[in-house]
Amino acid sequence: MVKTIELLLGLPPMNQLDALAEPMRTCFSGPLDLTPYTAVPNRIPLDDMNPPLEALSGRALYFAKLSQQLDFSEVDKADEDSLNRILWYTQRGDDPYPDWTVTRDRERYGLR
């Protein structure tokens, strides 16, 4: 992989292993397709901000408050289970959180 990246970027090998490695040419073989594509417009404005807490209710308010409590001061310092549940709710709404991901007490989040 590194050899391929070096070749694509026109960089010299970093070491002998890179120099002797086989590039991943077969991954990129085949006819070149220059067919234009149709861009899909954003469904959510890129400058859209989160609504104020006063505009939220129910689980949306709960997860907004929970996200304010997470520690993002360093990489991987925020509670992983809480963050995963916030992201799930943000993307999937009230869809059930997958059982195989549960790592904590479900009652903490008002779930079955």
Please tell me the overall pLDDT.
87
Number of structural domains: 2
- What's the story with the biggest beta sheet? none
Q: Order of helices and strands, N to C?
A: HHHH
What would the principal axes of the Cα set say about the shape? elongated
Query: Helicity, in percent?
Result: 25-40%
Radius of gyration: 23 Å
Number of H/I helices: 4
Which structural category do the helix and sheet elements fall into?
mainly alpha
Strand content: under 5%
- How many β-strands, per DSSP? 0
Termini separation: 45 Å
Task: Flag low-confidence runs.
Answer: none
Features:
112 residues; mainly alpha; 2 domains; 0% strand; elongated
In words, what does this structure look like?
- The chain has 112 residues and is an all-alpha fold.
- The protein has two domains: 1-30, no CATH class; 53-109, no CATH class.
- It is built from four helices and no strands.
- The chain has helices at 2-9, 16-20, 58-69, 80-92.
- Helix 3 (58-69) runs antiparallel to helix 4 (80-92).
- The longest helix has 13 residues, at 80-92.
- The radius of gyration is 23 Å and the shape is elongated.
- The protein starts with a helix and ends in a 20-residue tail after the last helix.
- The model has no long low-confidence stretch (mean pLDDT 87).
